[in-house]
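Design a sequence for this backbone.
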């Protein structure tokens, strides 16, 4: 499956340059890349639900909705899409902590800096993992990054997604856990939570990015808290 990279910039010349650099970076790679270009944040948001991406290279200074506003819109929805900001002004960098930007690149973008960011992205396994799951209407392919948490319901498991929808999986939560990556951990015998979407942890509950509070078993507190800290230390390193 190709790495899907979106470019969002209202300067055609910048889009052309970034497309050329991405193709040059990918020339000696085993995996392919798929590049989509957008000349506004509005255009990106209109297309994003139908055509998701794995990485967004985003200009900050754009007409209409600017890049920072676009990033905040995604994060408000619980979407942790990796974002690399591209800007001509270094003062924007402090704002990136609020939206957990993967990196900043200053214009004019240097090839070496871009390639370094792309290598880090690729090496850290940021590409969205697709899994095949048995559901009510047959087998479905779903991105792990769309799953906030899973809740056991008898012999079924309910998957709560970042877009607010719920998917019913026809297998138990123990079997489901074997299909998902190590980014999913139990916080209770009835719940699997996605580390990417944890907002905070208390002694008795885990709060997800959408505000949902899930019970945290006393015996699992230490392991969940440690996994949460390790996950974000690695992400920010």
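Sequence:
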């Amino acid at each position: 499956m190709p790495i899907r990279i979106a470019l969002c910039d209202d300067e055609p010349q910048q889009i052309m340059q970034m497309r050329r650099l991405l193709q040059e970076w990918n020339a000696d790679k085993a995996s392919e890349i798929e590049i989509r270009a957008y000349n506004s944040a509005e255009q990106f948001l209109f297309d994003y639900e139908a055509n998701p991406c794995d990485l967004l290279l985003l200009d900050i200074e754009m007409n209409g909705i600017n890049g920072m506003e676009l990033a905040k819109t995604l994060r408000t929805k619980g979407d942790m899409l990796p974002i690399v900001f591209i800007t001509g002004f270094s003062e924007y960098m402090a704002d990136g902590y609020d939206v957990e930007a993967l990196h900043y690149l200053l214009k004019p973008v240097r090839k070496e800096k871009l390639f370094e960011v792309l290598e880090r992205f690729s090496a850290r396994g940021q590409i969205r993992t697709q899994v095949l799951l048995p559901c009510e209407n047959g087998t479905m392919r779903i991105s792990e990054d769309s799953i906030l948490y899973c809740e056991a319901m008898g012999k079924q498991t309910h998957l709560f997604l970042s877009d607010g929808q719920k998917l019913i999986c026809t297998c138990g939560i123990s079997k489901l856990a074997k299909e998902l990556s190590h980014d999913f951990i139990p916080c209770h015998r009835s719940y699997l939570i996605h580390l990417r979407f944890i907002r905070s942890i208390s002694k008795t509950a885990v709060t997800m990015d959408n505000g949902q509070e899930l019970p945290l078993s006393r015996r699992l507190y230490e392991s969940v808290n440690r996994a949460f800290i390790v996950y974000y230390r690695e992400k920010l390193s």
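Residues 3-123 form a domain with the Rossmann fold fold (CATH 3.40.50.2300).
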